[in-house]
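Design job #97: recover the sequence.
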């Protein structure tokens, strides 16, 4: 619901973010903002229907509000499946406004799928028997680069923790 409000008025959202980050109570503590929008124009635990351009428009408004001196980064989906979450938003169009992306390559498989499949949550490459093609780091980075996002704007996130399931064979 808050994501939908942000997408409907990107300038107002950007202003509120700037006011929060630049609040005098913590002056000069932050060097920018990182946005974690799960997931623009796609479903996660809830579904977002803000449209393909919404992410790009919000990032443009944030860059306009924060200027070039402040960092603007975003944690984004790593779902490189055909028609998946990367395809749902204009990440390539938004890239020009961001300093870098943090693809969440630690969220391919997890406890949100209570009945499985169980799988490594941060596979670097695909492997025989992977439950979902496109859910590996190499494929994610290749897909983002194929959209025209430069390598220098991709900061890889890998989880150094495990996930567990119960009641799954």
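Job complete. Output follows.
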């Amino acid at each position: 619901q808050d994501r939908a409000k942000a997408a409907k008025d990107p300038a107002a959202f950007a202003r509120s973010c700037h006011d929060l980050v630049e609040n005098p109570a913590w002056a000069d503590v932050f060097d920018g903002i990182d946005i974690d929008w799960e997931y623009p124009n796609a479903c996660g635990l809830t579904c977002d229907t803000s449209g393909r351009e919404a992410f790009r428009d919000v990032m443009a408004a944030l860059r306009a509000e924060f200027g070039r001196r402040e960092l603007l980064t975003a944690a984004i989906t790593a779902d490189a499946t055909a028609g998946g979450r990367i395809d749902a938003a204009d990440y390539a169009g938004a890239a020009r406004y961001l300093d870098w992306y943090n693809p969440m390559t630690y969220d391919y498989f997890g406890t949100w799928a209570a009945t499985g499949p169980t799988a490594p949550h941060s596979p670097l490459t695909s492997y025989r028997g992977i439950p979902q093609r496109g859910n590996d780091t190499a494929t994610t980075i290749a897909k983002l680069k194929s959209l025209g996002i430069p390598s220098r704007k991709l900061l890889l996130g890998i989880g150094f923790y495990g996930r567990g399931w119960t009641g799954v064979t």
